[in-house]
């Protein structure tokens, strides 16, 4: 009898295990894939009857999207006066005029998982353009007035935590320009599931190699900007934060840039106006060692590309003379913790401009923090 009960119990356990496996497989099969959102590059066009010139007249005219306000459907090579309006992905993009917005429902998300949105934006005729990006209840205003590429297009990233399996992504232009049609061009919306960063036995910092970050388009050789954010927001480079008022850092891939290690790195393109920071738990009075790589991205950014690092009361400057062809130096900062939390800060020491007039700066990568044994060695000597 006992043997029969044990067989039944094992059978039930096996059945529950199989059900769990099937449920997990079903979730994986329905999870949203990394890459373009449905019609994320706006190549599915509105019907001609839904357009008045370039202006979109129907609320649901652009397939997969809902629009409100003054929204234009722009073709590649179209002109506005003497200004040519390029399109980075395919043949079409949209432009948001004053108080205009586009929105799309994003489905097949895992509640409590974190995601990053990458999209391309270009200024047109307004001077201080901004974009309000929202997935309820989270919302941030991204400054787009600084242009970091010679083409005029930059890719931006933004992150959120899904509260439900279906959410609505809203991108709104809060501008109030004299010309209602003035506003940023938008194109190429993509999504990526962010994996929770973890510490390793050799590094107290999470994501110190920057391998986990926002989606980068294969055919856009200008990286992805990680804009400034409030400290309570979710970072596309989690748990790294960008502290600034209006400036960004640039997330790079090894396919288009010189990366010190691995497949990803960060370029500090805004001088001292944007700091890359991470908070980490420490023990007051204990010694630590911070190491990092500082160099150039091989993108023609030449000159003095120094990086300053701060932690507790310590700081170190790593000078680097760049020829714009790639390369790096290792920086080391040894310090003693003064609190239960220590903020690690990396910032460029100067503003640098490439020959085409665009901002650039030093590349940082392979950042590690370890506790050292200085105190123990001192006790042994005594």
From TrEMBL:
Gene3D superfamilies xrefs: Galactose-binding domain-like
Keywords of the record: Cell wall, Glycoprotein, Secreted, Signal
InterPro entries associated with the record: DGR2-like_dom, Galactose-bd-like_sf, Pectin_Meth_Modulator
Signal sequence annotation: 1-28
DUF642 domain residues: 35-192, 204-369
First-listed, main subcellular location of the protein, grouped into a coarse class: secreted
Pfam family, any one: DUF642
Record protein name field: DUF642 domain-containing protein
């Amino acid at each position: 009898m006992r043997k029969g009960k044990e067989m039944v119990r094992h059978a039930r356990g096996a059945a529950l295990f199989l059900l769990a496996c099937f449920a997990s497989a079903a979730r994986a099969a329905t999870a949203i894939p990394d890459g373009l959102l449905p019609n994320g590059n706006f190549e599915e066009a509105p019907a001609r009857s839904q357009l008045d010139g370039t202006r979109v007249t129907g609320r649901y005219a652009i397939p997969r999207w809902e629009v409100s306000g003054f929204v234009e459907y722009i073709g590649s090579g179209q002109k506005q006066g003497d200004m040519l309006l390029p399109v980075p992905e395919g043949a079409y993009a949209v432009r948001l005029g004053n108080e205009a917005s586009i929105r799309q429902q994003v489905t097949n998300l895992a509640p409590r998982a974190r995601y990053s949105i990458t999209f391309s934006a270009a200024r047109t005729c307004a001077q201080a353009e901004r974009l309000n990006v929202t997935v309820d209840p989270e919302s941030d205003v991204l400054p787009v007035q600084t242009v970091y590429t010679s083409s005029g297009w930059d890719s931006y990233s933004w992150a959120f935590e899904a509260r439900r399996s279906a959410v609505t992504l809203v991108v709104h232009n809060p501008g109030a320009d004299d010309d209602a049609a003035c506003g940023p061009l938008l194109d190429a919306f993509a999504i990526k599931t962010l994996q929770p960063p973890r510490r390793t036995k050799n590094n107290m910092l999470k994501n110190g190699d920057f391998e986990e970050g926002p989606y980068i388009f294969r055919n856009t050789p200008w990286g992805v900007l990680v804009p400034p954010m409030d400290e309570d927001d979710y970072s596309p480079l989690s748990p790294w934060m960008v502290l600034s008022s209006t400036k960004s850092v640039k997330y790079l891939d090894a396919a288009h840039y010189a990366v010190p290690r691995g497949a990803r790195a960060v370029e500090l393109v805004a001088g001292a106006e944007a700091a890359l920071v991470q908070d980490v738990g420490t023990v007051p009075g204990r010694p630590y060692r911070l190491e990092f790589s500082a160099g150039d991205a091989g993108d023609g950014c030449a000159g003095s590309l120094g990086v300053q690092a701060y932690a507790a009361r310590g700081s170190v400057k790593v000078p680097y003379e760049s020829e714009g062809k790639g390369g790096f130096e290792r920086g080391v900062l040894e310090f003693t913790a003064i609190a239960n939390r220590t903020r690690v800060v990396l910032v460029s020491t100067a503003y640098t401009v490439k020959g085409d007039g665009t901002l650039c700066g030093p590349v940082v990568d392979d950042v590690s923090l370890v506790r050292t044994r200085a105190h123990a060695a001192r006790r042994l000597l005594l």
